[in-house]
Amino acid sequence: MNAEVPPVLWSRAMSFALLRAMRPKQWVKNLFILAPLVFSKKLFDADASIASAIAFLLFCATSSAVYLLNDIADREKDRAHPQKRFRPIASGELSITAARRAALILLVGALGAAALYAPALALILAGYLTLNFAYTHKLREIPYLDVLCIAGGFELRVLGGAAAADIPASGHLLVATFFLASFLGLGKRMHELLEVSDAERRSVLSRYDRRGLRYALIVFGLVPIAVYLSYTLSAETRALIDSPQLPLTTVFPIFGVARFMMLITSGHEYESPTEAMLHDAPFLLNFVLWAGFMLALLYAF
Fold it and tell me: How confident is the model at residue 234 (pLDDT cuts 50, 70, 90)?
């Protein structure tokens, strides 16, 4: 079929399919890399900002390679899924050979560049790849451990940003990241469990219990809020931000957690609650307001 398509048109179609398979929308997750930079008040430090930007780009390349390899491994299951069957590899828009070559180029390029720029970052990227490999081939079939693997990926993003910019990652940041990422992962599992057709296709979902998931969501949703409040009240933070208004910003994470809980159970056309969250105006407005207040308190006062 591809032989009948003019080479130029085929190349353009393949390039577009490859870009979609790399899932650039998911690169927003890599913004966690910038957290150590922002919260250490080094956003306007040229060297630290450039280092963090490089780490962000390298994680984007690495995560896209992981998505390509995962979609290759899952192509048969994806073809039976009502939404995932439209993914480029599952639908046949992107050949397996082209996807493998692209993933190899991205991985070699990212790891090679990281090794030359910051060896510690290269080790973290290698750890991220190892974790995702274990997740794809075994750990995603173990309930709750699959979600902890996702959280581990976010921890590695924060550590990668800290290593690249030579900034220590605070305990508050690491703990909050772990529980917040776990909360988002558990939310996705709850959303999938509520969809009967999807649950029938994901073997790990049959090992999840709705009641247990609800309790886990409550705990993993409350802990990052508590950690954030603790951060706003700590002596270390007060040394950076001398503002009595800082603890009041806790209302933003409270609203964000509550809004995400609502999105988990509300019907929407998106593949996951995380994707719905990124299209939800109240959630996005809440995030923008929080980010604006925090940047103002960190850098303007």
Answer: very high
